[in-house]
Amino acid sequence: MLELFLVGIGTGNPDHLTREAENAIRNADLVLLPHKEANKAELAQVRLTMLQQLGVGDERIAHFEMPQRRQQGDDYGQQVDEWHDAIARRWQASLSAHLPAGTGRVALLVWGDPALYDSTLRIAARLGLAAAQVRVVPGISSMQVLCSAHGIALNEIGAPFLVTTGRQLRDQGWPECIGTLVVMLDGQCSYEQVHLPDVEIYWGAYLGMPQQILLHGRLPQAAAEISARRAQARQEHGWIMDIYLLRRPGTGC
C-alpha cells in the first residue's frame, strides 16, 4: 500500500522539526522535493539540507518542478483549482516513475503546518488515496514563530483572534468583535489599507531563518517602513515569506 506523509517542517529552521517529523522523513522510501522558479532555489535548498542532515540519500529524492498558477482574470477559485490539479499530476508522475509498483512510504515536506493555510491536503485528495493512506505530521506554524520572535501572546485574555488572508482583509475589512488579526498570504501589503486608531503591527519575514527580519510599531508609523523593508528584502533574495499580527485595543461585543 502507498502511504503519503505530509510532514510539517516549520519555517525553515531545522530545529523546528519534531521527532515525529524526523522519523517520518528517515523512514520514507521516497521524498518528493518541489522546485519553484530559479529565484526561489533557496527554498528547495532548505528542504534538501534538512534531508541531508537526516541521512536521506539522493536515490530517495524525487525532484519535480512546480507548475505556475494562472493569475489573469478574476476567477481566483478556478485558478487555484487548475493549479492544484496541475500539481497533483506532477506528484502522480513522480510516484509512477519512482515507485512503479504503487507501494511504499512517501514524504512531502510542507512549510509550517499542513493544516493551516496550506493546500497540500487538498492536492493529496486528488490522488484518489484512501483516508488511511494519507498521514499528517504537524509542524510549527509561522504564526507561532512570529509570536515567539516578538515575545507576545497570540490572544488577549479571554479574547478571540482571527487568522485570515491579505485578500480577505482588503475585501472585507476588519471584522467586528475581533481585536487581534493574524494575516497570512499577503503579497499586497494589505495593512496599508487599515486606517483605524491605535492599531499595532507585529511583522516578520523569513521567520526562523538566518535572514529573519522583525518590525513592530503603531501601524500608521510602521506601515511605510515595513513595506519598504519588504520590497528591499524581496529584491535581495528573489522571494519573501512574511506574516503579521494586527492588534487594536478596546474591541469587544
UniProtKB/TrEMBL annotation:
Pathway: Cofactor biosynthesis; adenosylcobalamin biosynthesis. It is an enzyme of class 2 (transferase). It comes from the Bacteria. Its EC number is 2.1.1.152. GO terms for molecular function: precorrin-6A synthase (deacetylating) activity. Pfam families: TP_methylase. Residues 4-222 form the Tetrapyrrole methylase domain. GO terms for biological process: methylation. Keywords: Cobalamin biosynthesis, Methyltransferase, S-adenosyl-L-methionine, Transferase. This is Precorrin-6A synthase (Deacetylating). It comes from Comamonas endophytica. The gene is cobF.
